[in-house]
UniProtKB/TrEMBL annotation:
The lineage of its organism: Eukaryota, Viridiplantae, Streptophyta, Embryophyta, Bryophyta. InterPro entries: TBL, TBL_C, TBL_N. One of its GO terms (molecular function) is O-acetyltransferase activity. It comes from Physcomitrium patens. The chain crosses the membrane at residues 12-34. Residues 119-172 form the Trichome birefringence-like N-terminal domain. It is found in: Membrane. One of its GO terms (cellular component) is Golgi apparatus. This is Uncharacterized protein. Belongs to the PC-esterase family. TBL subfamily. Its main location: membrane. The keyword Metal-binding does not apply.
Amino acid sequence: MRTFGKAGQPSWVKPPCLCSVAVVMVFTMGMLIAPLMRLSRKVISADDPSTQLVSWVESSNNQVVEDLPVSGEIPQVTDEVLATISDSKDVTPTIVEEEKDGEVKHVLQLPSQQGKLKKQCNIFEGKWIENHSEPLYQNETCPFLSQGQNCPGNGRSDSGYLNWKWKPTECELTRFDGLAFLELMRGKTLAFIGDSVTRNQYEALMCMLLQVASAKPTGNRKFQRWVFRGYDFKVIRIWSSWLVHVSTDSIDFAPANMTKLHLDILDEKISEFLPMFDVLVLASGHWWPKTAAYIIDGKVVGGQTWWNGTYEKKYDVLAGYGVAMKTALKAIIAYPDYKGLTILRTYSPEHYEGGEWNTGGSCTGKTKPLEESELARNSYADTLYAHQIEAVKEARRIGENATRIRVMDITRAFSYRADGHPGPYRNRNPNKVVERGRNGKPPPQDCLHWCMPGPIDTWNEYLFAMLQREFIP
Ligand SMILES: *[C@@H]1O[C@H](CO)[C@@H](O)[C@H](O)[C@H]1NC(C)=O
Ligand SMILES: *[C@@H]1O[C@H](CO)[C@@H](O)[C@H](O)[C@H]1NC(C)=O
Ligand SMILES: *[C@@H]1O[C@H](CO)[C@@H](O)[C@H](O)[C@H]1NC(C)=O
Ligand SMILES: *[C@@H]1O[C@H](CO)[C@@H](O)[C@H](O)[C@H]1NC(C)=O
Ligand SMILES: *[C@@H]1O[C@H](CO)[C@@H](O)[C@H](O)[C@H]1NC(C)=O
């Protein structure tokens, strides 16, 4: 098997087009899936080809640690700050079935004393506890699942990683209820913007919702969009690797063809559609190790794995990331006519041991969450995380509606979940675990994205909880 493509990148940089996976699965599953959704091949395949890239492979290709601080202070985020920007009412709503015109609805009802409960619960502080309740969907029942994340379908036989639920210390995380979610989002538009990890969450949500309702694709060249008709609820996905404007023309001493990241300009792919969104979930992180020149006010101010030694470099990857996050969040919050709820999902931890993705790094054999003592500190990830929190704090200080920005703080909880990645089970090749490349190394593993079903489904339970807080009167 050819492991590396033309550009020296693994052949799985481009996962199979979602349309063909979906279409094949619809055919093979016939009656089971047909009533759930009507797929239009045309719309999905018209999606921007860049969205087909698996970001981190592309980005990690240039990963060099030259810009990482050898030591240095990692900005600390206090629990107090997190509680205010990611708080969730200490409420476990009951899901009530209502029948209207022969149709059953699931509606969330708060306990009557809710108004009196002032206590806040940080749903992101807690621990993983063993719980053998069924996953919210199966590989067989989700036509939306990319092959790269279909761990059982790719031969992963252990299933213990599915038997853990996140338990916030001071409250419960309500199990996802698709019908109640749809009811909560009736008439609204939810957008996911970011890279392939964001796509991972979007696909998981689609899998969760397609268990209870059907959706129709109504996207175009610029975004994927699914409409849940009976609810007039739309889910949109837009690809944006860095959240800021990208160009390739030469600027000053930064040559043509090199990626230029304009740290002070919001990605126009985001601004173009902002007013449409009622809820926006966004994130960025895994593309930053890629070679790029950083531009502020039209001038070259820094770069990643690239520099012209004649000048002083002001922004390395970490500083550049910090500026970009502030730019993106502040521009979004201040955007005219945008009144949506903005949710920044924090850095998604990867778990390579014994090397990087392309030098034999592995997460093979992880079958349960890590113990506290096994957690590995990663100063790069810690710093990105701290910059995200700083950017949210700063964005919340501007503008009348600035409080409508929240943090989905998954980083710590998911640092335990080394067991939740596809690892070697990123494709169907039955020999993938024993295979060795010419250099004697096994083929690259995916210890970055998350298996579906799997722990990533919890992100959508966090989302469900956050939306309840926002939209239940
Ligand atoms: C789903 O996973 C099972 C193993 O649990 C596997 O046998 C089956 O082929 C998978 N189906 C698909 C459509 O990937
Ligand atoms: C397991 O999780 C389910 C769904 O979240 C919950 O209803 C149930 O109470 C949990 N069981 C235990 C033993 O915690
Ligand atoms: C940096 O760029 C300037 C202007 O293009 C050029 O004159 C100089 O030779 C470059 N220095 C290096 C080390 O490439
Ligand atoms: C930029 O890339 C294009 C296409 O790959 C190539 O034809 C062109 O020569 C490149 N230009 C520079 C300045 O490297
Ligand atoms: C703030 O939000 C309210 C309610 O959503 C809206 O009416 C108002 O126009 C918003 N203000 C700005 C400056 O966007």
